[in-house]
Amino acid sequence: MKKDRLKQLKKQAEDNDQIIQKGLMKIYRNQDGSLPDISHLEIKSRKRGSLIFIGFLIVVLMLAGAAWLGFLIFNSDGNFGAKSIKLTFSGQQSIASGDEVTYVLEYKSVEKVPLQNVEIIFRYPDGFEFISAEPLPTNNFNSSWQIGELAIGQSDKIQIKGKIIGEVGSVKTIYATASYQPQNFSSAFKETQSFSSQITSSILAIDLTGPSQILPQKKGSYKITYKNNSEQELKNVKILAVYPSNFIFQESSLKPYAKPEEARNLNNQWLIQNLAKEEEGEIEILGGYLADQNQNTAEFKIQIGFWDEKNEIFSLQQEKTLTTEIIRANLSLNLIINGSSQSQPISFDQELTYSIVYKNLGQQDLDDLILFVTLDSPALDWTSLEDKHGGIVESNKITWTKDQISEFDLISPLAEKTIDFSIKTKGAAQLNLEKDNLSIKSKATAKIAKIGELASDELEVSSNEIINNINTDIELRVEGRYFDDDNIAVGTGPLPPVVGEKTTFRIYWSIANSLFEVSDVKVTTRLPEGVDWADKFLVKVGEINYSSKNREISWTINRLPPNKNFDDINVWFDVFVIPTKNQVRKLLILTDQTDLTATDKSTNAQITKTGKAITSNLEDDPIGGGKGLVIDITE
C-alpha cells in the first residue's frame, strides 16, 4: 500500500511538470520548435512579456509545492505527518510462564478535529490465552474493539487479561493498531504501539537429584520433584526425561504416559492432568548404565511444561540436567593356560600351567581386591596343585585375598602383577570316560571393595574364559620281534646277527583309541641305511606303503572309531639286514623313531604321538631279546 501511494504522488508531480513544459513550449518556442537560450536573451523594454513570464513561474512554483505537500501529508500508510491518536501500553515486564498477565492500553485523541470510525485491533504473542477484557471486545476472536468517534482530547483505556505460556528467557510482545478517520477527511489513518515482556520464571518448578557417580550395570535412582507455585489449578502438565544413550530404564514410581493407540510404550514422559495450586509431587526413576569405554559421563535431563494434547504441542517451561560420572573398574584381567589365552585341546596326565595377569588401567586406586579362579571339571587332579601364593582351595575354586598377596590391599594406577600356579589332568584310568565331563572350563574373577572413593562391593571383573577339551586317548605301540607271543619264530636268519648273513626281523605297529572318533591317521618311520624293506606285511586296518626314494614306511587309516584296542587296529611288516664288519659288537637300528598324527573329530584338534626306535636288541621279545649285538663267526 505504501509503495502504491508513493508511486501515485510521484506520478502526479511528473504529470504537472509535463503540463508546465508543454505550456512553456507553446509560449516561448522558436519557429523551428526549440526553446530559446534564455542565458543570452536581450533585455528589451517589453513589460508585458516580462509580467507574463513572471506570472507563469509563480504558477509553476505553486503547482510543484502543492504536489510535494500532498506527498508529505498523504504518506504511504495514510498517516498524518504528526500523530492524531496517542497509544500507551502498560503491563508487567517480567512475567512467570503460566501465570495471569494484564495489559492496559490507554488511547487519546491529540488531533484538533474529532476522529471518526476508530477501531483498535490487538495481535497477541504466541502462547497467549485470552481470559477477559474490559470493555468487551467486539469480534469473536477477542482481538478487536470498535470505538467509534473520539472527541478532541478524549481518552479511554482497554484492559486485557490472559495467560502466557512460554520458555523461561523468551520475550513475548503484544501489538495494538488503531485505525481512524479525521473529520472532513475521506482517507483512513493508522497508529501502532507494542509492549514486550520477558518470561523470567515459571509457575511450574522442577528439580532433579541422582547419583554423582555410578558403576556400570548397577541400579541407580533419579528423583524428579515438581510443584505448582501458582494460586490456580494447572492442567495437562507434562514431564519429559531425556535419557543418556547408554541408560537402561527399569521402572518408575509413577506410570509413564502413553497414548492408548500407540503400539510402543514410552518410558520417558509423564502427564499430570490436574495439578492443584501449590501441589507438589515426585517421580523416582530406576535404571542403570551399560558399560561403554567411550563414555565416562552421562547427562540425565528432565523437562517440564504444558501439553496441548489436541495439537500435540509441548510448551517447555523449565529443564534441569544432572551429570553422572560412570566409574569403571578399569581392571584388565587376562587368563593364560600353557602360554595361550585361547581354548585349546589337552591330554590326559598333562600339566596345565596357569597365569592370571592383572593391571589397573584407570586413574583411581583399587582397594581390597579379591581374586579367584574357577576350574570346572572332574578331570583335574587337585592333589597335584602347585601354588606358591597359598591360595584358599574350596571345591573347584582357588581364592587369593590381601592375606595371601599383600599387593591386593591397594592397587595403584598402572600397577601390574602375574599370579602363577599349575595343576595336572587325571589319567584316563582315573576317570569314567563314559560319564565324566572331560572338558575343563577355566575363568578368573576379581572383586573390588572400593574404586577411588566409591564403594563397589558388588562389582566383579571377569577374565576371558578358556575351555580345554581333553583329546581322545589314542595310544601307539611299536615293537620289534623275532618270536611272536606263541614263541613261534617270525624272523629268519641268525640271531644274534652275523656279519655277511641276512637276518629278518618283524616290526609290529598297534593303535588303541578310547574316547572320540579320529580321522586322517598316519603312522610313519624311516629305515636307516643298511636296513631294507622285505616287502612282506599284513594290514588289519588301513593301508601300508614303502617309498624306496626316501626309505619311508607309512600306514594310513581314514577313520578310526572310539573304543578300539591294540588287537583291533594293527599292522606288521618285515625288514632285513646283512651286517658288515664295521657293525661287529654293535646294535643295529632297525627303524627310526615312529610318529603318529591324527585329527580328533570331537575337538578338531591335531593329535601327535611318538613311538620308540627299534633296535636288534628286541626289548619287547621275551625270547629273542638281548641278542642284538652283531658277531663275526670267522674270528
CATH topology label of the largest domain: Immunoglobulin-like
The overall pLDDT, averaged over residues, is 85
Can you summarize the main beta sheet?
A: 8 strands, antiparallel
Q: Got a strand count?
A: 41
Strand residues, percent: over 45%
Terminal CA distance: 145 Å
- As a percent range, the share of helical residues equals under 10%
Total number of helical segments?
2
Per the principal axes of the C-alpha atoms, what is the gross shape?
Answer: rod-shaped
Task: Kindly provide the name of the CATH class of the largest domain.
Answer: Mainly Beta
Judged by helices, strands and strand pairing, the structural class is mainly beta
What is the rounded Rg?
Answer: 55 Å
How is the topology of this model organized?
Blueprint (H helix, E strand, L loop, with lengths): L1 H27 L18 H27 L11 E6 L3 E4 L2 E10 L5 E9 L4 E7 L9 E7 L4 E10 L6 E12 L6 E14 L1 E6 L3 E2 L5 E9 L5 E9 L4 E6 L16 E7 L4 E10 L7 E12 L4 E14 L4 E7 L13 E10 L5 E11 L3 E7 L5 E3 L2 E4 L9 E2 L4 E10 L13 E13 L2 E2 L4 E3 L3 E4 L4 E8 L21 E11 L4 E9 L4 E9 L3 E5 L4 E9 L3 E14 L11 E3 L2 E7 L5 E6 L2 E2 L20
Parallel strand pairs: 2-9, 11-18
Antiparallel strand pairs: 1-3, 3-7, 4-6, 4-8, 5-7, 8-9, 10-12, 12-16, 13-15, 13-17, 14-16, 17-18, 19-20, 20-26, 21-24, 21-25, 21-27, 22-26, 23-24, 27-28, 27-29, 27-30, 31-32, 32-37, 33-36, 33-39, 34-37, 35-36, 38-41, 39-40
Helix pairs in contact: 1-2
